[in-house]
Amino acid sequence: MDFSNFFLNNIEVLLPEIFFSFSIVGIILYGGVVISNNYVLTRYTNKLALCIVATLILLTLNTPAVDHTILSNSFFQDNFILIVKLLLLISVFCCLILSENSTLQMFEYSFLILLSLFGLILLVMSFDLISLYLAIEIQSLCFYILASLKKNSAFSTEAGLKYFILGALSSGLLLFGCSLIYGTTGTTNFEHLTNLFIDLPEQPLLILGSLCVLSALFFKLAVAPFHMWSPDVYEGAPTNVTAFFAIVPKLGIFLVLVRFFNYVFYDLPTLTYWWSTLGGICAFLSISVGSITAIQQKRIKRLLAYSAVGHVGYLLIGLFSGGTEGIQAIFFYLILYIITSICIWGSLLGINNNANVTQVRFISELKTVYALNPFLCFTLIISFFSLAGVPPLAGFLAKFGIFFSAIESSFYLIVLLAVFMSVISTFYYLRVIKSMIFEQTPIWNTKVLVCSLTKSMSLVITLGFFSLFILFVFPTPLYLFTYYLSLMCF
């Protein structure tokens, strides 16, 4: 291959990724050379990472929005992928802002966040099973280390170990599925697979391979019954790391699922039937497990972990409903879920336990929040109501869109079951609200918790808070935006 021609053809499209790769190398040198001689400079690493992500956002906005294959069809970029990359970058930018007051100040944290973001960007651009697998492994390895980053905590070490062992199992399952698909078709490229499936007779090994790939992706999303790692990792990982896990990765993984279901395997009716069947079962299991198991939780992060399992189930309903309505409902739900998660995790990161300078662990500890900071308390209440789908908040429109797309596809039974489980899930959100409002500690005892919000954290939380109201009253811009995204999927 003529390197000069390759460079000239791809430099404009790959400029953000080239800048990002050099930035990651630079932050390694900064940590290894500069910080090792002056450890005080560690606190500037987060600001450096924020500058890198902000520059990436500007570079991505100026990237040409044309259909373009890269590196021998291993990667692909169009306007749809550019928009998803922007959403990922904005989400990571917010996560870095919410981590400003974290006690976990080390350059490794910012480096691993950036490297995992690099893996997610490669993931959404992947146009081949091999590049897809490598991108998932890049971000997964970063996640394993991030979960165990707090080395003096037994909880964090246990979370990282469990995540690594179960993650290795899912990676093996993904690689096995890709091997079966390659062995059956002789290709790993998405475009070649799509063209081949038009005339290829359906084979058992092909169905088995695709189901292995689907199961591995379900593990990355913590879909029941592949959710075993999620509560332990959410609980054991540092809170700012847990916030990153809860906010960022779902968007990239769902993009891969949409691409598989609506592009690669769309012309295989039997395979589509198996995917829809498995997806419907897992969606119902996720909603049920998330709604029922969360009721028993006393720790706030485990409750939010099971809540995330339930919300992934709602997203799967939209995915396997198919059509433009289902895809639009997914992106509408995902954007609102990210906004709500930023409000919740930002509020929790702004509340520290004054005794040992750690974030709150138990729901019962939140009963001093109202006396400590009424705005944080009200933000948590509104965010939980939005997750429950209570009007007049945008979360109601998100669930309504999912249910409407399922009804359009005649999935009446699963909609009835999902609505019933949604009512049940409201209970554990109300239990947290009850603890904050009706179990107040006397004001002289509020020194147990301290509020440590910075100005930038307050700004991000405030914007998210008002968005939940504004997008309910004026949802048209977001509807048009997500409808445009859904059209570009086909």
Structural write-up:
- The protein has 490 residues and is mainly alpha-helical.
- The protein has a domain at 268-276 and 286-489.
- It has helices spanning 3-37, 45-61, 79-98, 107-125, 129-147, 154-185, 190-197, 204-221, 229-236, 239-247, 249-264, 269-293, 300-321, 323-349, 369-372, 374-388, 394-408, 412-437, 455-473, 476-487, and strands at 68-70, 75-77, 351-353, 358-359, 449-451.
- Helix 10 packs antiparallel against helix 14 (323-349).
- The radius of gyration is 22 Å and the shape is globular.
- Residues 127-425 form the NADH:quinone oxidoreductase/Mrp antiporter transmembrane domain.
- One of its GO terms (biological process) is ATP synthesis coupled electron transport.
What integer is the average pLDDT?
84
The residue fraction in helices comes out at: over 70%
> Which strand-content bin applies to the residues?
under 5%
Helical segment count? 20
Distance N terminus to C terminus?
32 Å
Q: What gyration radius follows from the Cα positions, in whole Å? A: 22 Å
The parts where pLDDT drops under 50 for at least 5 residues are 443-447
Order of helices and strands: HHEEHHHHHHHHHHHHEEHHHHEHH
Structural class: mainly alpha
Give a quick rundown of the structure.
The chain has 490 residues and is an all-alpha fold. The chain has helices at 3-37, 45-61, 79-98, 107-125, 129-147, 154-185, 190-197, 204-221, 229-236, 239-247, 249-264, 269-293, 300-321, 323-349, 369-372, 374-388, 394-408, 412-437, 455-473, 476-487; strands at residues 68-70, 75-77, 351-353, 358-359, 449-451.
What is this structure's SSE topology?
Blueprint: H1 3-37, H2 45-61, E1 68-70, E2 75-77, H3 79-98, H4 107-125, H5 129-147, H6 154-185, H7 190-197, H8 204-221, H9 229-236, H10 239-247, H11 249-264, H12 269-293, H13 300-321, H14 323-349, E3 351-353, E4 358-359, H15 369-372, H16 374-388, H17 394-408, H18 412-437, E5 449-451, H19 455-473, H20 476-487
Antiparallel strand pairs: 1-2, 3-4, 3-5
InterPro entries: NADH-Q_OxRdtase_suN/2, ND/Mrp_TM
Protein name: NADH dehydrogenase subunit 2
Transmembrane segments: 20-41, 48-65, 80-99, 106-124, 130-149, 161-185, 205-229, 241-261, 273-296, 303-324, 330-349, 370-390, 410-430, 459-485
